[in-house]
Amino acid sequence: MKPVNRLHHELNLKYAIQAEILRSHQRDADFTENLQKRLSEILHNFGLHKRWHQYIQFNTPLKLIYFTFTSGMGNQTLGEEYTGIVQANIEELKVPSLAMRILAIMLEIFGERLLLKMLKKLQAQVNEPDNQLTAEAVAVLNIFLFKLRAIVPVLILFHKGVFYIYGRFYSWGRRITGLDYVKVYGQQVATVSWGLKLLGITTIIQCLLKIWQTDMPQNITTISSPLDVSHTSYTCQLCLETAATTATLCGHLFCWDCLSDWLRNKPQCPFCREHVPPSRIIHLMNL
């Protein structure tokens, strides 16, 4: 991993294109997955695999350590070195500060999960019996927060569609911190693949349809804590229309089509981001 102390103020400094950024992130993902497997094998040999399985499966600590010792210390990641790109604040033509690099790492790894947890906690506070809110206010806030929790993953996917088209800011965390990528060495493809742009357009259309279809069932006025079964919705928590027929190991309910489509793209629960292998989803009976 090469240290990146500064950017040359060259007139021909070019943005990294989408394919290079995607290859970089894929190579980093492959490295952390291999590291996870090796660590899992070591723990298995020492008889600690069952005890630590949930942490190793989640993979977040390994990602945090990896990006701290690369991006956080001003070095290229393995993927960035492989594709010849560097993180940069392009508007100012300089390498971003340590604080911005760390903030981008934290937002990319924890941002979506923390936001969903904050919304869930806020919704639980809204439904506390000793709050000062009227019944009408509680109902309105529940509907708003429920929809917001459902739309957050869709908005993040929408942002990824914009990235496929324009190639700027791979994630929300990088957009917030102003970090992008520039090509510093190696041969760069002159044009962006039309397939990526087409993928971006279809992704955006899919997200707009999901947002348009998002609606709260009329018979739900409050969303209480998970233990309060009397107010639990048995509607799919993604499309919010079809009856829930499957559940993740973390206890969230979805219809088969929505959950299977989601897990094909990312093996994580759409709500809490817990790792969910497609083979471990549970078919529900007698709901």
Automatic annotation (TrEMBL):
Its pathway is: Protein modification; protein ubiquitination
Catalysed reactions, as listed in the record: S-ubiquitinyl-[E2 ubiquitin-conjugating enzyme]-L-cysteine + [acceptor protein]-L-lysine = [E2 ubiquitin-conjugating enzyme]-L-cysteine + N(6)-ubiquitinyl-[acceptor protein]-L-lysine
Q: Does the keyword Cell membrane apply?
A: no
Q: Which organism is it from?
A: Dinoponera quadriceps (South American ant)
Under the heading InterPro entries, the entry gives: PEX2/10, Pex_N, Znf_RING, Znf_RING/FYVE/PHD, Znf_RING_CS
Annotated protein name in UniProt: RING-type E3 ubiquitin transferase
Pfam families for the chain: Pex2_Pex12, zf-RING_2
Give the record's membrane topology. Answer: Multi-pass membrane protein
Looking up SMART domains in the UniProt record yields: RING
Q: Where in the cell is it found?
A: Peroxisome membrane
Q: Which UniProt keywords apply?
A: Membrane, Metal-binding, Peroxisome, Peroxisome biogenesis, Protein transport, Transferase, Transmembrane, Transmembrane helix, Transport, Ubl conjugation pathway, Zinc, Zinc-finger
Q: What is the top-level taxon of the source organism? A: Eukaryota
A single GO BP: protein import into peroxisome matrix
Q: Which GO terms describe its cellular component?
A: peroxisomal membrane
Gene from which this protein is expressed: LOC106748203
